[in-house]
């Protein structure tokens, strides 16, 4: 395996690093945007997810354009790897390439915290910010919203 083709062709480097101080509160009810695709020029998105006890996560789905990686910071989370459910604990990691079936939820009595990394960067913030709103709309509107955000739930595919 080799390194990718250079994307920076200068000789001396440049001042371009981004420092984001810690946020005191999550940006949504459960997600903190550590690095959005806007901040990384579309390279990746990195979110911290804090789920309460017995919290629903995402149903079985896949993405056509992005990979997703999960890294458990604390607590235990149930992760579906496309074949079976596994329990992820502190330090555990799950990588899901484009097209890979996956799901997650917290069925424990304790909170869980994890990092979610997706590449390349995509405008996922709107998905998380408006999902609850679209969940109250018709199933057709919810499905169109998901597809607009590269989220293909397998239950939606059964309806097709």
Return residue spans where pLDDT drops below 50 for at least 5 consecutive residues.
none
Determine the N-to-C terminus distance.
40 Å
Number of DSSP helical runs: 3
Helix/strand-derived category reads alpha+beta
Radius of gyration, rounded?
17 Å
- What is the averaged pLDDT score? 90
The general outline is globular
Strand order of the largest sheet: 1-2-9-4-7
Note the run of SSEs as H and E.
EEEEEEEEEHHEH
In terms of DSSP E residues, the strand content is 25-35%
What's the CATH class label of the domain at 31-122?
Answer: Mainly Beta
Q: In total, how many beta strands?
A: 10
Within CATH, the superfamily of the domain at 31-122 carries the name Jelly Rolls
Q: Which architecture of the domain at 31-122 does the CATH hierarchy give at level 2?
A: Sandwich
Biggest sheet statistics: 5 strands, antiparallel
């Amino acid at each position: 395996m080799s390194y990718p083709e250079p994307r920076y062709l200068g000789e001396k480097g440049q001042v371009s690093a981004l420092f984001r101080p810690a946020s005191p509160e999550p940006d949504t009810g459960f997600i903190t945007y550590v690095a959005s695709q806007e901040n990384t020029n579309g390279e990746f998105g990195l979110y911290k997810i804090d789920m309460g006890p017995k919290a629903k996560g995402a149903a079985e789905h896949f993405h056509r354009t992005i990979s997703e990686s999960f890294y458990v910071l604390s607590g235990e989370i149930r992760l579906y790897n496309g074949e079976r459910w596994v329990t992820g604990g502190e330090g555990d990691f799950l990588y899901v390439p484009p097209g890979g079936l996956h799901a997650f939820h917290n069925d424990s009595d304790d909170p869980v915290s994890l990092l979610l990394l997706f590449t390349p960067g995509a405008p996922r913030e709107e998905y998380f910010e408006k999902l609850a709103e679209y969940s109250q709309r018709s199933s057709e509107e919810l499905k169109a919203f998901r597809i607009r955000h590269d989220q293909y739930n397998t239950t939606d595919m059964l309806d097709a």
